Amino acid sequence: MSDVRIEPRDDGITVVTLDRPERLNAMTLELVHELDDVFARLSADDSCRAIVLTGAGRGFCSGHDLGELQDSEAEGELAGVPAGMHVQEAFASLATRMRDTAHPIVAAVNGPAAGGGLALALAADTRVAAASARFNAAFVRIGLSGCDMGVSYLLPRVVGPTLAFEMMLTGRLVDAPEAEKHGLVLRVVPDGEVVAAAVELAEQTAANTPFGIRMTKQVMWANLDAPSLETALALENRTQILCTQTADQREAITAFVERRPPRFEGR
Q1: Do the beta carbons of residue 188 and residue 177 sit within 8 Å?
Q2: Can you give the CATH number for the domain in which 128 is found?
């Protein structure tokens, strides 16, 4: 049975659900490979305009399935650095896979987002949370480094280094109101409404031209690390000129002048 459920909608939004509710959607290596494949396929699918990532049941994702980890260690599958590194890199590669996915990803965080679950939420382009959402860099609580799956890179950029370092060093839980206060999530909604709120945000994104959104995602992430304003401007300038050469950009202008909804064709 699949551990990842895919639900395409007529409006171009695809809802991707981690589907191991009995384990709070804890990640196994099989789930990681499946999720990586899902994002790769959706990235190449022009009918998909935006993605909502959530978890089934009462949790978003509780991180690495410790039962699988113990079984792998007992069976010697993680014996030695090369075998362990192979698994580690598979989990970590989800961060870059999500970054490289052409379409925006909105995380709808319901319940716990711990360890690798926090990493998945951070790797999304933005996040909304249910009132029951909880976030923590749980790695350090089980004897590992608090820096894993891109958290040490992404978390300080989202909430600032002071809170990020405290979260990674202590592994403490951050509730939904605190997460909203520090910008970890865009907003908090009542339990049961988080997927609808994320879909609404995804729909607002999908109302714009496909190429314009794809370029926006690329440039905003690239310029987060731009070494200078001049470098950022050069990338912006290149991208704007590329966008002006598309039929959809001309249609957007025409629709605005004629005060009608645009009809984009993805070209």
Answers
A1: yes
A2: 3.90.226.10
